[in-house]
């Protein structure tokens, strides 16, 4: 069955977490924003069922919110842990990724998405200082510990195989290294680095990353590189 992904065509953004799962599984999908333009995404939102993209649809239903979409996809795409308890653990960790991503976004938009970064650089700089000093190390340490303490071994975050959660952490690590290269050099994340490598080396992910379907990070997305924020560490 073909999935249809609705997401803004020019940024990796939150759509990338969904794209990575579809790509890792070799799923059949149409990237509606990239094939039909942003207006097709706006039309989907204007229909009123979902507040914001990403939205994933098949012939029977449409679902929004990254964590919810990934929970939906993980079993059919064979990217879920084998039992219910570990599935709940995966969901819980994915919701922590949701919180982490929101905080990363808020570094450049501390007063919400409608106030331009250029108008509040000084506010953003003090927010960046707090984020880089406290929140970034706290989130990273949490995921490092999760990997280290996985009872099935430290290759993956939950269970003994790659899940949608591992793909998301790969994207977060890549995004953080793009946005905060200076700050990230000061973070010690050996387990997450290994995880990101392991994900990048998967056959389908490798060919996806080399393809033009993969959108490069840029300063319109969630992970933005502003040197004046990165140097607040
Ligand atoms: N909680 C949602 C957040 C969705 C979201 O904020 N989407 C952004 C793009 S990454 C958007 O276009 N938001 C429009 C809006 O909030 O009005 C998720 O995890 O998917």
Automatic annotation (TrEMBL):
Keyword Disulfide bond: no
GO molecular function, one term: glutathione transferase activity
Gene3D superfamilies documented for this protein: 1.20.1050.10, Glutaredoxin
Domain GST C-terminal stretches: 83-229
Cross-referenced InterPro entries: Glutathione-S-Trfase_C-like, Glutathione-S-Trfase_C_sf, GST_C, GST_superfamily, Thioredoxin-like_sf
Origin: domain of life: Bacteria
Name of this chain's protein: Glutathione S-transferase
Lineage per the UniProt record: Bacteria, Pseudomonadati, Pseudomonadota, Gammaproteobacteria, Salinisphaerales
